[in-house]
From TrEMBL:
Keyword Transferase found: no
Stretches assigned to the Tryptophan synthase beta chain-like PALP domain: 21-303
Organism phylogeny: Bacteria, Bacillati, Actinomycetota, Actinomycetes, Kitasatosporales
One Pfam family of this chain: PALP
Cofactor(s) the protein requires to work: pyridoxal 5'-phosphate
Xref: InterPro entries: Cys_Synth/Cystath_Beta-Synth, TrpB-like_PALP, TrpB-like_PALP_sf
CDD domains: CBS_like (cd01561)
Protein name: Pyridoxal-phosphate dependent enzyme
ATP-binding is among the record's keywords: no
Length: 379
């Protein structure tokens, strides 16, 4: 199943139907490069080989559903806060469905990414300082509300909380079911929660014993760690996205930027496919999962390609300036019994997955929510 038939069946006018065959339909690659240790191999879904990258699936889904409900009028502007990848996806969806796109980013957005977004016809609004409470994400949302207030008919998809974001990944699930004979372990990076939430349902219906591993950034609040300034973009968040389905994960791993850089560079040199922070992080964890239980079939999603990251992940000066030194790579993650047991500063695994904003009582203690810092002060 691709999105094209869904759109053709719907009552939504498609401005540029010739673009639809470019969406999704991405290949899976068998990855065997040492990451950094030898492993039997895993499958990677190469989303950068579809137009607009992984987030184009979510973007087309959100805009189509909003059009169908009448929340987005034909030709009306779409406004979203993004650190990049969703911007590309929305630029694609805007062209498909005929909507101008306004993106609220921040000055941390890589110059090449800004240029790319403008090249695809999006208008950029950049905030130049983080909010005192809530960091860059809060500053972008404040500006987004200003843009919404002054733009007639503007529509905000709200990728963090919109259920049509996960729904956009049904097409990816259907592709994976067609591409893989069997699947034991799915490894997903988590940012808005969209692709993990969207994939798990259909994949578990096909393979009921499927184990799901979430991969987050160190310093991210999503799985109950304290929010800190983060270097890695894409995965992780300083807020608590409504689309993250904590209950679907069997375990969570936090990965640090130096580990992601090492994995990205090894992938690029040894497998010719690579990506950015989230790709490096999921590759590291997928290789470990394949090695930890020989015989298991492991698959992951590489959300985008390497080009956006030439000035960061693949730039020696950037890595040196940020202290991302090539150190002896770990063979396995550190284990912690609970997200609150210790703060992850490098690759760390936890088999207890909690929703930090759900009022779940912990034995002998206060509700977990009481231990979670307000989403402030972080990037
Ligand atoms: C490059 C990249 N990787 C991974 C993710 C995480 O995906 P999701 O938002 O579906 O959880 C994002 C989300 O913004 C992203 O931009």
């Amino acid at each position: 199943m691709t999105l094209a038939p869904l759109l053709h069946r719907s009552d939504v006018t498609v401005a540029n139907p010739d673009l639809l065959p470019l969406l999704g339909r991405t290949p899976v690659a068998r990855i065997r490069t040492d990451l950094p240790h030898a492993h039997p191999g895993f499958w990677a879904k190469l989303e950068y080989l579809g137009a607009g990258g992984m987030k184009a699936r979510a973007a087309v889904s959100m805009l189509t559903a909003a059009r169908r409900r009448g929340e987005l009028r034909p030709g009306a502007p779409v406004v979203e806060s993004t650190s990049g990848t969703m911007g590309i996806g929305l630029a694609f969806a805007g062209q498909v469905l005929g909507h101008p796109v306004v993106l609220v980013g921040d000055t941390e957005l890589e110059p090449a990414m800004r240029q790319l977004l403008r090249t695809y016809g999006a208008r950029l609004e950049l905030v130049d300082r983080p909010a005192a409470q809530g960091g860059w994400q809060a500053a972008r949302i404040a500006r987004l509300r200003e843009v919404l207030a002054r733009t007639e008919d503007a529509y905000w998809p709200d990728q963090y909380n919109n259920p049509d974001n996960p729904a956009g990944y049904r097409s990816m699930a259907a592709e994976l079911i067609g591409q893989l004979d069997h699947l034991d372990v799915l490894v997903c990076s988590v940012g808005t929660g969209g692709h993990s939430a969207g994939l798990v349902g259909p994949l578990r219906r096909r393979w009921p014993r499927l184990k799901v591993i979430g991969v987050d950034s160190v310093g991210s609040a999503i799985f109950g760690q304290p929010a800190r300034p983060r270097l890695m973009r894409g995965l992780g968040s300083s807020i608590h996205p409504g689309n993250v389905r904590h209950r679907v994960f069997d375990e969570v791993h936090w990965v640090g930027p130096a580990e992601a850089v090492d994995a990205c560079r090894r992938l690029a040199r040894g497998s010719f496919v690579s990506g950015g922070w989230s790709t490096g992080a999921v590759a590291l964890v997928s290789a470990w999962a394949a090695r930890a239980e020989p015989g298991t079939v492991v698959a992951t999603v590489f959300p985008d390609g390497p080009h956006r990251y030439l000035g960061t992940v693949y730039d020696d000066d950037f890595c040196h300036a940020h202290g991302l030194k090539a150190t002896a790579p770990a063979t396995r993650p550190l284990e912690i019994p609970h997200p609150r047991a210790a703060e992850a500063v490098g690759w760390t695994r936890c088999r207890t997955v909690v929703d930090p904003v759900a009022p779940v009582p912990v034995p002998g203690g206060a509700p977990l929510a009481a231990h979670v810092p307000a989403p402030g002060g972080a990037v």
